[in-house]
Amino acid sequence: MPIFTGSGVAIVTPFNEDETINYPELKRLIEFQIENSTDAIIICGTTGEASTLTDEEQIECIKFTVEVVNKRVPVIAGAGSNHTAHAIELAQGCERVGADAVLLVTPYYNKTTQKGLIKHYKMIAESINIPIILYNVPSRTGLNITPQTCYELSKIKNIVGIKEASGNLSQVAEIAALCGEDFHIYSGNDDQILPVLSLGGLGVISVLANIMPKETHDMVASYLEGDSKKATKMQLEYLHLINELFSETNPIPVKTALNLMDFNVGNCKMPLCEMDNKNLENLKEAMKDAGLLK
């Protein structure tokens, strides 16, 4: 069985002015997501600014999320690192506090070979018992998981799927062909939800879902229930907003959008800073068009 089918939100981490985690607001965000049909919570990923959290903050944030969610939907915890031993420690911490699965981004900056990738993920997989979703986002890491490497990793029992954010649909198709239906593919790009579903994907790990959880869930559900016309209409209708959510480095625009919607998620941590004024105005217009602002 897949960890989830549908729309999983790559949820932001709200911060107080002193850059500590704003736990009351995180609880509010989680409840907002669950009330609006989100199918999984992905905590402490890229959108959650995990790279700016201490290990203690990251594990505590995951523990809090697990407790608030209380088994209503799966909780998938970010545990990636460019240091294999560190990734193992994080993954074990996620398992210890009750995460249902971990999301593991490829090693960044120092990178590695495809052989090194297989060894890296194999070592982590052998250190935990919960499922692993690979996360392929070469635009941020400088490293691509090739379809053949993905196939080799799919043979490992608890490596069950991939968040594919390469933007390369031919690669997604090859992964699907090589790995088969038992290996679960999730879109990592909100502008490619429908194309990935058409290749056998089970859903999306979404930034858009932070501000439009019900709509993102409905888009995926419509497609999976056979109403591809409705799903396609929704994908195209939200394309302008999706593009504006990525007009600057994620999660700058989506945290800005949430604050505009009267959530209190605070600023991103440096070196991520406030939006350029022109991009901000474009984001506001897209939000108005989507009915999120008056």
From TrEMBL:
<dbReference type="GO" id="GO:0005829">
    <property type="term" value="C:cytosol"/>
</dbReference>
<comment type="similarity">
    <text>Belongs to the DapA family.</text>
</comment>
<dbReference type="GO" id="GO:0008840">
    <property type="term" value="F:4-hydroxy-tetrahydrodipicolinate synthase activity"/>
</dbReference>
<feature type="active site" description="Schiff-base intermediate with substrate">
    <location>
        <position position="163"/>
    </location>
</feature>
<feature type="active site" description="Proton donor/acceptor">
    <location>
        <position position="135"/>
    </location>
</feature>
<keyword id="KW-0704">Schiff base</keyword>
<keyword id="KW-0456">Lyase</keyword>
<feature type="binding site">
    <location>
        <position position="47"/>
    </location>
    <ligand>
        <name>pyruvate</name>
    </ligand>
</feature>
<dbReference type="GO" id="GO:0019877">
    <property type="term" value="P:diaminopimelate biosynthetic process"/>
</dbReference>
<keyword id="KW-0963">Cytoplasm</keyword>
<feature type="site" description="Part of a proton relay during catalysis">
    <location>
        <position position="109"/>
    </location>
</feature>
<comment type="function">
    <text>Catalyzes the condensation of (S)-aspartate-beta-semialdehyde [(S)-ASA] and pyruvate to 4-hydroxy-tetrahydrodipicolinate (HTPA).</text>
</comment>
<dbReference type="GO" id="GO:0009089">
    <property type="term" value="P:lysine biosynthetic process via diaminopimelate"/>
</dbReference>
<comment type="subunit">
    <text>Homotetramer; dimer of dimers.</text>
</comment>
<keyword id="KW-0457">Lysine biosynthesis</keyword>
<protein>
    <recommendedName>
        <fullName>4-hydroxy-tetrahydrodipicolinate synthase</fullName>
        <ecNumber>4.3.3.7</ecNumber>
    </recommendedName>
</protein>
<feature type="binding site">
    <location>
        <position position="205"/>
    </location>
    <ligand>
        <name>pyruvate</name>
    </ligand>
</feature>
<keyword id="KW-0028">Amino-acid biosynthesis</keyword>
<dbReference type="Pfam" id="PF00701">
    <property type="entry name" value="DHDPS"/>
</dbReference>
<comment type="pathway">
    <text>Amino-acid biosynthesis; L-lysine biosynthesis via DAP pathway; (S)-tetrahydrodipicolinate from L-aspartate: step 3/4.</text>
</comment>
<dbReference type="InterPro" id="IPR020624">
    <property type="entry name" value="Schiff_base-form_aldolases_CS"/>
</dbReference>
<dbReference type="InterPro" id="IPR013785">
    <property type="entry name" value="Aldolase_TIM"/>
</dbReference>
<dbReference type="InterPro" id="IPR020625">
    <property type="entry name" value="Schiff_base-form_aldolases_AS"/>
</dbReference>
<keyword id="KW-0220">Diaminopimelate biosynthesis</keyword>
<dbReference type="InterPro" id="IPR005263">
    <property type="entry name" value="DapA"/>
</dbReference>
<feature type="site" description="Part of a proton relay during catalysis">
    <location>
        <position position="46"/>
    </location>
</feature>
<dbReference type="InterPro" id="IPR002220">
    <property type="entry name" value="DapA-like"/>
</dbReference>
